[in-house]
Amino acid sequence: MVATCQVDNCGVVAIARCSNPGCQVPGGAAFCLSHGTIGGHCGLCLRVTKERIDDIAARCANARNRIRVMAELLTSEGFSPPNRYFRATATKTNWRGKVIEVDDPAADGYGWPVGIHEWVWSVEVGWPHNNRQERRGRRQLFVNNNGEIIAHGNRSASGRPAVSSQYAFMQGPEIVEFWDGIVERMADIVRSHGLTVPS
Asked: Looking at the record's lineage, which domain of life comes first (predicted)?
């Protein structure tokens, strides 16, 4: 007997069964060409995955917003970020006409330290900087007064937590734990200055 698609009572001839071990249908739902994916998951599992992705994205966005609000609160109350995460330099020509590098303290980056985490960032390689490569390692992270997460030594908020992925469907609960951990660290900093943590 030919199996028919079990997604939304479709009834069209099935081409495969869902490969997701956690599929709602025991043994995996049979699905047709319209109700399956290249990854072998049926439409039922895809809906659950999309809901999970949306939930994770919303929780991460909420955490990032809370971090920004706490950074703005600290700044508005006169508490400047104490630690330098980036030492800025500028070039100038000395009296001999030679171009030299000098410190530019006005452009230094300062932030509140929020822990050492696995971090992924891009660097330019090759001549003339025509290629970007990803690097990964444990870095001291800071939150600047704009609420951005910046790794030690970086000028700007480039990079991402190593537990995250550039592809949304691969995000897991680890990314939520990362952002919640940063929120808790910022809340500790806010409380240490005698302020109330905004909700």
From this structure: Bacteria
pTM of the model as a whole: 0.67
Domain ranges of the chain: 60-192
Count the Cβ atoms, other than its own, within 10 Å of residue 66. 20
3-state SS, residue 85: strand
Q: At 29, list the tokens.
A: 């739902």
Quick one: which of 10, 64, 4 has its CA closest to 30? 4
Contact present, 178 and 161 (Cβ < 8 Å): yes
- pLDDT digit string, tens, across residues 29-67: 899 888 887 678 888 887 777 778 788 889 989 999 999
- Assigned token pair, 123: 């660097």
Give me the phi and psi of 16, to 5 degrees please: -165, 175
Tally of CB atoms within 10 A around 46 = 19
- pLDDT of 110-122, one tens digit each? 889 999 988 887 7
Residue 75 CA to residue 97 CA, distance in Å, equals 41
